Amino acid sequence: MLSTEKNNNPLRISVGSDILQKYADLVLQKYSNYLRDWTIEEKDSENFVYFNRKAPLGCPLCKHIHDKDQRWFGHVCASNGRFIVKCFRQNSDERGVVFECDSSIAEKIQQNNKNLSLASHKIKGPGFSKAFVKMPSWVKYNEALTATETYKERYVRPLPNEGDIYVGSPWETGKTYVLEHLTISDDARRIIVMDNDLTDLNIEWIKALRKDKLFSIIYNTYHPQEGKTFRLAPNKETVLAELWDWAKRMSLLPFENQTSASLICHLRKDVQGIIRTLKTDFPELQIKEYHGKSDPVEKAHDFNNVEESWSNVDLVAYTSTLKIGVSCTNPKFERAFCLFNSYIETNAGTNQMLFRMRCIKDYVCHIEQRSSNAPITEKGLFQWLLNARRECLPRELQNRGIFPDIDSIIRNKDVPTVRLWVAYMLEKFRSRRLFGWRMVDFLREAGMIISIIEPIPKSEEKIVSLSQVVKANSSIVKTEEISDVSNATIVDRETAEFLENKPRKTLEEMRSLDRHHIVECYEVSPESLTEDFISKYGNYNHMKWFRAYRQLRDAGINNETAVEAIIRKDYRDDKLAVATRAERHRICLELLRICTPAKDIDDRARYKADDVKAHIDSPESTSYFQGLVPKMARVFDNTDASRSAKKSGLKTIRAKLGLLNSALYATYGLKFKAINKKLTHYHLVGSFDNNDSLELPPYQTGKEIYWENGEDTR
Q1: Does the pLDDT of residue 126 top 80, yes or no?
Q2: Would you say which domain of life the source belongs to (predicted)?
């Protein structure tokens, strides 16, 4: 079914620049208001067309205004001669815009590629990975697949040898895809499976599809890690103590006797604070650090040849910026110090970060886990799975399936389909609670020796801990970054557009873009931007909340009309993410109207505690809160709030306010809370309600009054 001959898709797309120019002109003609020009660039011995925009307008393809480097790209579908254009912001499984051309061009392309395909069949030997190097990631084999949304068709490809099939997900995404409705032809002789920590489950599923058929499976779940040790630290301080002990010993040894180490963190602030402190305490150590704010030019240079760049380095510190495409086999690197947060990365992505250094023998790791939510027993684990399933699926899909209760899962836990379902649920909801459990289980399966470091008793002496010093240095680095952004070169919109489309930016250019994005978001003058303003409002969440305010206001004359406008936009764009945002708007507005005396998100009046209690404890409010509990997971991506509400039973005002504020804060950065410790009055307060903030749009500063004597004046 997926053989090269039956697929009719070549392994190499041979398209000349003259043909690409004709297609590019068609695209430019249709989108002349948005696109400025196009270029043909060679990548992996192939020519592709890249389109640059000329104005910060809403993208006609993804319906968003691009904040960063987001170009369009185009390629030719060799099977029919069509030219497909997509925006880089679109997902790989989203359809692009198709441009038809005359049949002679299609015939020419097919003939050229037919000759190349015939020549490729003469080459024998395994070499299957070479086929993927030449294929752009967005080239699909749609015609030959039967798949559902749970397993995207782009992850199944034919191999050079007839009958061979490649099944897998790109390892850098850190996701596992379920082969639930994938069909594999009977004439497939060999299946090569490439995936992450749950590949064995997919393999079991493939075997079930191929009963009584002779075939072999080659898979690459992970490199064996026999003999390596993975020591779990009870806290961050233990990891830092081990790191400082190593640094002290290395600084006293002659160069020829020194060994190197890596520092792997999920959070950039951890890397920055630790490295600044280490450089102060051990200035003789040679340290490299890589994260989202490090110099991109230096990063690109070092990543091009890490063996040479790190040959004389004592410590390499990195975040997830290093997890794709970089691998070091220098035996000098023997130890790794790791600080992970269960809510930052997927398990597969974290495992890739761990194994970038191939020769490390000893890992010391602390996983910051919300221990109160971590299932300890097997029954607790499967109970969580059932809860996740019920909470996170749309109502019409809940309570369907083959596992109605915990006991049936445990009884059949060794059946491949059950194991696959469990794996799918864990990956689908990116379990924060089970992060450490799954990660350690994966490493144990890989052959590593797992041990737990006993906690060190706290000293009674008042000594400043390493964690406190690192935290202080992290704050200093943050202040310096804010100062750099504040003093960055002011760029106009046209220059910002040019920088966003620039493939490799300098550190100064990145800071200028950061400054420009803040100015553009809040509509303030570049000259008036201060360090204090950046510190308060330059955070990603603050900008997200402010855009949510603006979206609500700009969509209509009042909030109810605005939500309806956003919903109508959803149907035009057919975007689940936008639909979810609209649902968040609607829920928050209904929460305020039904469950509090506040009239709107702009209402900053003070309300007596008795009035607040009367609203929150009313039968209508209680019913609405109960209906909100399952939505917290599905709409607001907050299973913790959902579980907490279930545990409390929503019997107290505090529990109900907690649920209400979880929704308001996620959407607008707002909270409805008491103004004093005596709880005599409550009010709605937001992140932009400071008196010393710069001039913001009227609908946010309150200068445009919406409510007078309880009436809407708009």
Answers
A1: no
A2: Eukaryota
**Cβ atoms of residues 603 and 684 within 8 Å:** yes
What is the per-residue pLDDT for 208? 57
Please give the Cα distance from 441 to 448 (Å, whole number): 10
| Residues 313 and 514: beta-carbon distance below 8 Å | no
Show the CA angle centred on residue 531, arms to residues 525 and 537, nearest 5°: 75
Q: Pick the more confident residue, 311 or 213.
A: 311
Torsion of CA 533, 536, 537, 539, to 10 degrees: 130
Residue in the structure block whose two tokens are 């041990």 = 451
Q: What are phi and psi of 399, to 5 degrees?
A: 65, 20
**Radius of gyration, alpha carbons of the chain:** 28
CA angle, 351 then 356 then 359, to 5°: 110
In one letter, which amino acid is 700?
Answer: Q
Using CA atoms, how far apart are residues 339 and 346, in angstroms rounded to an integer? 14
- Residue among 134, 117, 165 nearest 46 (CA): 134
Give the C-alpha separation, 374 to 197, whole Å.
20
Give the β-pairing of 229-232 and 216-219: unpaired
Mean pLDDT, rounded, for 333-350: 79
DSSP conformation letters of 112-145: HHHHHHHHHTT--SS-THHHHHTS-TT---GGG-
Q: Which residue has the higher pLDDT, 397 or 638?
A: 638
Domain extent listing, the chain: 1-123, 145-221, 229-370, 375-432, 580-712
Instruction: Give the C-alpha separation, 514 to 520, whole Å.
Output: 10
Residue 418 · residue 454 · CB < 8 Å:
no
Token pair recorded at residue 669:
């950065």
Longest dimension (CA), the chain: 84
The phi, psi pair for 164, rounded to 5°, reads -85, 145
Strands 681-686 and 333-341: unpaired
In 3D space, the residue among 658, 672, 665, 602 whose CA is nearest the CA of residue 636 turns out to be: 665
Q: What is the DSSP string of 19-33?
A: HHHHHHHHHHHHTTT
Element (H, E) at 17: helix 17-30
Look up residue 138 and give its two tokens. 């967005």
For residue 191, give the 3-state DSSP assignment.
strand
**Residue count (the chain):** 714
Query: Torsion over CA of 357, 439, 414 and 226, rounded to 10 degrees?
Result: 40
Q: What count of other Cβ atoms lies within 10 Å of the Cβ of residue 249?
A: 12
Q: Residue 409: how many CB atoms within 10 A of its CB?
A: 22
Q: What is the pLDDT of residue 203?
A: 52
Q: What is the dihedral of CA 148, 149, 151, 157, to 10 degrees?
A: 70
**What is the 3 state secondary structure string of 700-714?**
HHCCCCCEECCEECC
Q: Which DSSP helix (H) or strand (E) runs through 76?
A: strand 72-77
**What is the β-pairing status of strands 333-341 and 260-265?**
parallel
Lowest mean pLDDT among 232-246, 316-330, 471-485: 316-330
Residue with tokens 């590629």: 113
In angstroms, the CA 669 to CA 678 distance is: 24
How far is it, in rounded angstroms, from Cα 430 to Cα 350? 13
For the whole model, what pTM was predicted?
A: 0.58
Q: 229-370 architecture in CATH?
A: 3-Layer(aba) Sandwich (3.40)
DSSP run (H or E) holding 281: helix 268-281
CA–CA distances in Å: residue 665 to residues 376, 391, 551, 654 = 31, 20, 16, 16
Point out which residues pair with 32 in neighbouring strands: none
* Range 114-120 average pLDDT: 45
